[in-house]
Amino acid sequence: MSGSNGPGRTGPGRRLVLGLPAALALAARGARAQSAPLRIVVGFPAGTTPDTLARLYGQAIAGPLGQAVVVDNRVGAGGIVAAEAVARAAPDGNTLFVGNNGPISITKHLTDRLPFDPDKDFRPVGFLGVSMQVLVARPGLAKDLPGFIAHAKAQEVNYGSVGAGSASHLFMAGLTAQAGLKAQHIPYRGAPQALLEIAAGRVDVMVAATGSALPLIQEGKVVALAVTGPGRDPLLPEVPSFDQAGVPGFVLPVWNALFAPRATPDAAVDRIARALVNAQKDEAVRRGVTAAGFTLEDRDPAAMARFIKQESARWGEIARATGVRLTD
């Protein structure tokens, strides 16, 4: 007899022995993937609002996810460098992008040469926060929005932004076009640098997220002229909205959210989305988001996608009206 366990047989017992090393290898790879750090790529420097929110949420979700969370600052081109890095990353659920109005909703209207497609290369995971913006001016330039507009119609001013193609850039371009202002754009690599230039008197105005500008407003180093919400910002109750100051049509929020590469599996996205929702229930996270000048947005990925589509259309209207284009 040749024996049922001879080397030429392929019965169930033989298949089990041959399959065991492969099964162990697959299990090991799964364990490594699970233990790999979650990398959150931010397109702005440390200390900026996107960076602050990434670190706040990263700390909150690391434990529930069972992963270390690493914030990777890839600064450049108003978030485009970071967005491209994530668009090309492996869709394994371990790389996310902190996207905001600029690279996701605005820049596609300003150039045909983006190295990624914001509509096709990413899938939404969850909002980190939504905020009003505030128009701030250097001390002595103007006391209120009508005063600034009168000044900028008579004499050229310059305005800072957090980068070419950002929400702060296009907002001011829209205001310049609608109000007939004489204004030149000066892009910076983030809000802190631009705001300090305004406080030093080297830049006249800029629009920034309320949380970014609030410390300098409170210290009297910059002057708040108007906020971009439908009403007053709870953080700046004495500052009117653009509508209230007599300049309608500028209700444009800024937001920060997490995105994954498009091919990331549903299970991986759902896992992180659930962790974000739970993190928003944590009091420390809620305080941190509020301190950054943002409010929480409880939207699932599908609702997020609908919101971004509508918001992108509005920025597209402004881009076409102003004729702003990004040059190579």
What's this entry about, in short?
By secondary structure, the protein is α/β, with parallel strands linked by helices. The chain is built from eleven helices and ten strands.
Annotate the secondary structure layout.
Layout: H1 12-35, E1 38-42, H2 49-65, E2 69-73, H3 80-87, E3 95-100, H4 101-106, E4 122-131, E5 133-137, H5 145-154, E6 157-161, H6 167-179, E7 183-187, H7 191-199, E8 205-209, H8 210-218, E9 223-227, E10 254-261, H9 266-279, H10 283-291, H11 301-322
Parallel strand pairs: 1-2, 1-3, 6-7, 6-8
Antiparallel strand pairs: 3-10, 4-10, 5-8, 5-9
Helix pairs in contact: 2-9, 6-11
Descriptive report:
There is one protein chain. This protein has 328 residues and is an alpha/beta fold. The chain folds into two domains: 34-131 and 254-322, D-Maltodextrin-Binding Protein, domain 2; 133-227, 3-Layer(aba) Sandwich (D-Maltodextrin-Binding Protein, domain 2). The protein has helices spanning 12-35, 49-65, 80-87, 101-106, 145-154, 167-179, 191-199, 210-218, 266-279, 283-291, 301-322, and strands at residues 38-42, 69-73, 95-100, 122-131, 133-137, 157-161, 183-187, 205-209, 223-227, 254-261. Helix 2 (49-65) links the parallel strand 1 and strand 2 (69-73). Helix 6 (167-179) packs across helix 11 (301-322). The longest helix is centred in the N-terminal third of the chain and has 24 residues, at 12-35. It is globular.
